[in-house]
């Protein structure tokens, strides 16, 4: 699949986003011309995925600079808009890092900010390609099967979540391109169904065989010998290899460890946070209860009028000790064997 249309693209005067809340039923784009509209799109997951929100955040700084010029903002108002954009979602480190990179160019003017955002996009595109190849090569050597592979993935880590072909889904695309994917087990990824809606949509566009499954089925799929490997993305990776990713990832890693199935994390180095030592310090986004309860009509009301509550952490943290391979554009670290990002990617 050509990864056009891109999840995030700059039109020259506005930020054009695929509205991921409308997929798979409708492919439509949002024309974003101001910072608050972009913050809303990020919070609603109209644009989502660590590298994609990083790129969107960088172009969002350009929107803020253009808006400041149009509306005669003070420097303080511009700084406040940038700070709100940077904080739109707390877990994916890419958003803060990319907003900081673009904001650092503000003194040079709008063109310099746009140039930084373009560089971020180009770097992610190249990183996707490099990690797809490195991840596929490592996996094929590790599994050493003389047949196409059966893999499991969680959430969406494809062209919709990045500037390129994807992270974990990029590895899967590379394997498919070599004729080495038998099927992909796609976790639906409750409550927002990024797997069932977005990953299935991306795989279907390219004729990559896949089966959507309930998140609750993932452990038995792994332990039952139905997959050769699990490949997931990341939102923040700390110095010791602990990795925050979509909620449900930890359970897959535990099942893989129990079953001796390779567990691979694919992420660009822009997702590695070398300022944070362990996963205990990663801020985990807590999202609205309605996202969990909507499926059952908003929840149950007890006779005394109290209503069902919901617990909705958007991410969980997988210890590096459960990660067989961490692949980025800088190569593969066998984290569970002691190869840590803090030692190798500083
Ligand atoms: C290629 S990073 C994708 C990463 O981001 C997703 O989270 P969200 O859909 O909330 O943005 C998920 O954790 C994926 O692994």
UniProtKB/TrEMBL annotation:
<feature type="active site" description="Proton donor">
    <location>
        <position position="235"/>
    </location>
</feature>
<dbReference type="InterPro" id="IPR037171">
    <property type="entry name" value="NagB/RpiA_transferase-like"/>
</dbReference>
<dbReference type="InterPro" id="IPR000649">
    <property type="entry name" value="IF-2B-related"/>
</dbReference>
<feature type="binding site">
    <location>
        <begin position="48"/>
        <end position="50"/>
    </location>
    <ligand>
        <name>substrate</name>
    </ligand>
</feature>
<dbReference type="Pfam" id="PF01008">
    <property type="entry name" value="IF-2B"/>
</dbReference>
<dbReference type="InterPro" id="IPR005251">
    <property type="entry name" value="IF-M1Pi"/>
</dbReference>
<dbReference type="GO" id="GO:0016853">
    <property type="term" value="F:isomerase activity"/>
</dbReference>
<feature type="binding site">
    <location>
        <position position="194"/>
    </location>
    <ligand>
        <name>substrate</name>
    </ligand>
</feature>
<keyword id="KW-0486">Methionine biosynthesis</keyword>
<feature type="site" description="Transition state stabilizer">
    <location>
        <position position="155"/>
    </location>
</feature>
<protein>
    <recommendedName>
        <fullName>Methylthioribose-1-phosphate isomerase</fullName>
        <ecNumber>5.3.1.23</ecNumber>
    </recommendedName>
</protein>
<comment type="similarity">
    <text>Belongs to the EIF-2B alpha/beta/delta subunits family. MtnA subfamily.</text>
</comment>
<dbReference type="InterPro" id="IPR027363">
    <property type="entry name" value="M1Pi_N"/>
</dbReference>
<dbReference type="InterPro" id="IPR011559">
    <property type="entry name" value="Initiation_fac_2B_a/b/d"/>
</dbReference>
<feature type="binding site">
    <location>
        <begin position="245"/>
        <end position="246"/>
    </location>
    <ligand>
        <name>substrate</name>
    </ligand>
</feature>
<comment type="function">
    <text>Catalyzes the interconversion of methylthioribose-1-phosphate (MTR-1-P) into methylthioribulose-1-phosphate (MTRu-1-P).</text>
</comment>
<comment type="pathway">
    <text>Amino-acid biosynthesis; L-methionine biosynthesis via salvage pathway; L-methionine from S-methyl-5-thio-alpha-D-ribose 1-phosphate: step 1/6.</text>
</comment>
<keyword id="KW-0028">Amino-acid biosynthesis</keyword>
<feature type="binding site">
    <location>
        <position position="89"/>
    </location>
    <ligand>
        <name>substrate</name>
    </ligand>
</feature>
<keyword id="KW-0413">Isomerase</keyword>
<dbReference type="InterPro" id="IPR042529">
    <property type="entry name" value="IF_2B-like_C"/>
</dbReference>
